Amino acid sequence: MQPQDSAQQRLRKSSGFAAGEGARALLTAAAAFVVLFGLKYTSEITIPIVLASFLAIISYPITSALRRYIRLPHWLAVACTVILDMGVIYGLINLIKFLAADVKSTLQGDFLKHVGEKYDAFLQWMDQLGVGEHARTLLDSPLTLINPQQLISFSQSLTGRVLSFMSIATLVLILMTFILGEAPLFRRNFERLPNSIQGKGKVIDALRGMQKYLIIKTLASVSTGLLAWWLCHAMQVPFAFLWGFVACVLNYIPTIGSIVAAVPPILLALVLKDWGGMLIVAGGYLAINFAIGNGIEPLFLGKQFGIATTVVLFSVLIWGWVWGPIGMLLAVPLTVLTKLALENSVDLYWVATFVDDNPGNSSPPSSKISNN
User: For a 10 Å CB count at each end of the chain, is N or C smaller?
Assistant: First the structure.
């Protein structure tokens, strides 16, 4: 009877262990949803803090260079860095205002007239095929779908929203100034921590990698925007400067952003040009995104973050739901920080291993502790 009793005891222990692990997984998922909802409904506070932190990460090399090579005192180096960032931010705000004015002037011109002429020509072609009536029932005139007054009022309201965004930008710059000002203090305090503390090296590597990622991603996005503007301008696609700006901003969103940025100019090329013009614009966008997204960026960045591509796409959707467009732009750095926290948790290490594209390079926190 003893072997049978021991088998029953092992069965009870294994079933109890499985139930405990299942309950722990449910509690972890519930806690994650609570955190995400908290971040979503406190976005007015958390978004400026996160933006200021990432802006400080990007700007800190400028402060360090001013201190190291020009021998400026720390407070003056921080002031010069903040002034430079202020010029970039308010330059972007004025650029958005210029784009809104350009859209307004274009809509007040002959743009919609050309669209209407292309629509009539398309219906005549459909009449020759004998399906003109069906086409008219399925496709309304673009002049009824596109209300010029609504678009003009939207461009005017966009200018007002940009002006209101200036207050948020000011708050971000103030927070970034304090972060940069106390960066040496944070660094000294972090270096004073014992080397045996688990994850200390990973934090340093993650911050350096994130800094490198944000800088190279910014340069790649600017290059993408300039090439997209040149392509649309050469093909005489309306709002060429706008599409270049959109391509620059959406390039921060992995995979999805480049596809979304290419759709409007391709459709405009089809409507206002012909199939040949559409194919040239589509091929140009494909070449730009392939050269920068699959050539230049991996060359300088590599696979330093170790996150599976599917997880990156899911993170874009999740952070987009939490913080909107800003969350989608910062999805990769935020996911890296989350993965770093999971890697240093004994209970949640398996989650970090599951999303890693090369999990063999790391070991659980418990094994590291036992080896020290």
Answer: N
362: nearest Cα among 305, 309, 315 = 305
* Paired tokens of 109: 């011109």
User: In angstroms, rounded to a whole number, what is the distance separating the alpha carbons of residues 243 and 225?
Assistant: 8
What's CA 287's distance to the chain center, in Å? 21
Structure tokens at 368: 């590291």
Gap between the Cα atoms of 55 and 96, Å rounded: 20
Spell out the domain ranges in the chain: 33-192
Global pTM reads 0.70
Contact 88, 248 (CB under 8 A): no
Dihedral angle at the C-alpha atoms of 206, 212, 215, 216, nearest 10 degrees?
Answer: -130
Distances (CA, A) of 346 to 33, 196, 349, 353, 363: 20, 16, 6, 12, 11
At 361, the amino acid letter reads N
Write the pLDDT tens digit of every residue in 167-223.
778 888 888 899 888 888 877 777 776 665 555 666 776 777 777 777 888 888 899
Which one of 87-101, 296-310, 348-362 scores highest in mean pLDDT?
87-101
Please state the φ and ψ torsions of residue 363, each to the nearest 5 degrees: -130, 160
Q: pLDDT digit string (tens) for 114-146?
A: 666 666 676 676 677 766 666 666 565 555 545
User: Residue 20, class by beta-carbon neighbours within 10 Å (0-12 exposed, 13-18 middle, 19+ buried)?
Assistant: exposed
